[in-house]
Amino acid sequence: MISRRDFLQVSMAASALVGASGFGNWSRLAAQQSLTQDQLLEFDTFGNVSLIHITDIHGQLKPIHFREPSINIGVGDNKGVVPHITGADFRKAYGIADGSPSHYALSSGDFSSLAQAYGRVGGLDRVATVIKAIRADRPDAILLDGGDTWHGSYTCLKTQGQDMVNVMNALKPDAMTFHWEFTLGSERVQEIVESLPFAALGQNIFDAEWDEPTELFPPYKMFERGGTKIAVIGQAFPYMPIANPGWMFPEYSFGIRDENMNAMVQEVRAAGAECVVVLSHNGFDVDKKMASVVPGIDVILSGHTHDALPEPVTVGQTIILPSGSNGKFVSRVDLDIRDGRMMGYRTKLIPIFSDVIEPDAEVAALIDEQRAPHVADMAEVIGQTDSLLYRRGNFNGTWDDVICDALISERDAEIALSPGVRWGPSVVPGQDITREDIFGVTSMSYGKAYRTEMTGEFLQVILEDVADNIFNPDPYYQQGGDMVRTGGLGYRIDVSKPQGERISNMTLLSTGELIDPARAYVVAGWASVNENTEGPQIWDVVENHIAKLGTVTVEQNNSVEVVGV
Amino acid sequence: MKLTRRNMIAISSGAAVVASFGAMPAFASLADDAIAEITGGAEMGEGALTITAPEIAENGNTVPISFDAPGAVMVALFADGNPTPKVASFKFGKLSPSHSASTRIRLAGTQNVVAVAQMEDGSFQKTQANIKVTIGGCGG
């Protein structure tokens, strides 16, 4: 048991983005001019062990803009609780002042103007500076990468993840777990993993043929740090062969496997671990449920759903910290491990303001080296935008509106479908759209844009199926993405209903007529999980569309009516 | 590990699929009939019998299922959404080192896999896992 005194002490520290200096301090800093690297890094070193967590970088080597969602609906037990509160409600819950750096980093609202004031975020050279500073405080801090690292950019696609591997290796992680990495194909994954100078963990990565653990991905690694033993157990994304093309990695099976997680926790405790950390790619709500089902986990470092929270959420004796995405945040977690248990913690979610944190020169040079062969191609300006282009949101994002428009016009379709992924940097109004920007929201190893016919009935089955992956009240049945984006098709969704009853009023927007279940519609989409999908690459489709438009302007999208919230 | 709460939530959503999609006939009564054949309608307890199964099947054609039933002399598995719900039955003798088994089954769609165990004293135990079969495709 953690004593009440410890908890009180902890909650004071943990509730602050700026660590010991007190929550809300940032709100008093009017703008970036008064924000310093020292303030971002300020931390009163605590206990005897430090963890550093970064996750869901999605190939973003350089600073980017990234707008957080304004719609992120929670269902079941997670209705109305973090991370399912957004914008002004989120700021109110954490006492964050409007217009403050925390507002810009953590919540939606006024993004375009705040982006002008506070600039880009992320950049692995800045991340390197933060990691070095933490290691200066605590030389044996454990750096953990939550996965979705070797995917998501032009250079990452062209080098099959090698750019990210080279740069991450320079940061010297101690362990990593996985998701999109597997979309490189199992052969490439094996090649990279065998080259890694750190542990590739996944207690739920099994051999598909025998349903047994694999040798390539051990379940956990023990670390002796600060006079104690810490076990880090890996938890890869459970639904990879379902959410992504399983034919690319048929040798592997995943799943939540909380029974095996429980067995691993027992095993590491029996082997002398005084602290059990789960490096997870479950997604936040799945992690909360896992913490309630599997006893004995002290810390879950949470990834996949791209949530960023300024303080940990506790479930029983477990603290859960989601550290955002796209290189925007690094979490520092200091733990006091004594007498066989976690006695206290102090955490800080450090936002990587790229104009405030000095880039690490060595890593900056390494990044430039990875990009150099591709810079001319990436930098080509394809068009401009009058609108903020972003992706996050349960039902649509302006980037996806552009992609759906591109599919309809370039592929001559009535309806477009675009996957509800959560990665992809934003582009602010007035900015050029470069080829790199387009790859930032489209690049993947299965990006072909198909064109096919689907009946109205089948379209409804798809919408119902995907909706249940998001709004099933049991987190274990959620896959952690957002609703498939639709172009040319409007619908009403009641998120409170069970599968088969959520979707109604499906409408073909071009005519205003209700979708006929028996009629076939011409549908264009991309990111199909089916093998042998044919069509041009989605980034070429989007580039052609934007080049024709010249300047992109996205109108308000009212095609999805949401009820039952 | 007990899977009770998860199952309760899952069952309700699974049942709704059967009811509303129409494409999948409700075979649950067939499974109930098959179970009644074994138990003779006796009350079934729970607690000693556990099923381990994926929440969402990676491939509905081959879904790994395992069970652990200490003290059971027989365990029968049923897939309540399949046209033929009876899957398999396993008999355990006094010298069986463990009363567990694993197999793979084909599932026609989202449904419950039900395990019924006959215990040494002749009483019955029942547990089930809801397994979702999905078209997938849009992970974050």
From TrEMBL, chain A:
InterPro entries listed in its UniProt record: 5'-Nucleotdase_C, 5'-Nucleotdase_C_sf, 5_nucleotidase/apyrase, Calcineurin-like_PHP, Metallo-depent_PP-like, SoxB_N, TAT_signal, Thiosulf_SoxB
Keywords: Hydrolase, Nucleotide-binding, Signal
Superkingdom of origin organism: Bacteria
Keyword Nucleotide-binding in record: yes
GO biological process, one term: nucleotide catabolic process
Any one Gene Ontology cellular component term annotated for this protein: outer membrane-bounded periplasmic space
MF annotations from Gene Ontology: hydrolase activity; nucleotide binding
Chain ranges of the 5'-Nucleotidase C-terminal domain: 397-527
A Pfam family the protein falls into: 5_nucleotid_C
Positions of the Calcineurin-like phosphoesterase domain: 51-307
Classification via SUPFAM superfamilies: 5'-nucleotidase (syn. UDP-sugar hydrolase), C-terminal domain (SSF55816), Metallo-dependent phosphatases (SSF56300)
Family the UniProt entry places it in: Belongs to the 5'-nucleotidase family.
NCBIfam families: thiosulf_SoxB
PANTHER family associated with the record: 5'-NUCLEOTIDASE-RELATED, SULFUR OXIDATION PROTEIN SOXB
Name used for this protein in its record: Trifunctional nucleotide phosphoesterase protein YfkN
Protein species of origin: Planktotalea frisia
TrEMBL record, chain B:
Keywords per UniProt: Signal
Pfam families: SoxY (PF13501)
Species, as recorded: Planktotalea frisia
Top-level division of the source organism's lineage: Bacteria
Keyword Signal found: yes
Ig-like SoxY domain residues: 37-138
Segment forming the signal sequence: 1-28
InterPro entries reported in the protein's UniProt record: SoxY (IPR032711), SoxY_sf (IPR038162), Sulphur_oxidation_SoxY (IPR016568), TAT_signal (IPR006311)
The protein, known as: Sulfur oxidation protein SoxY
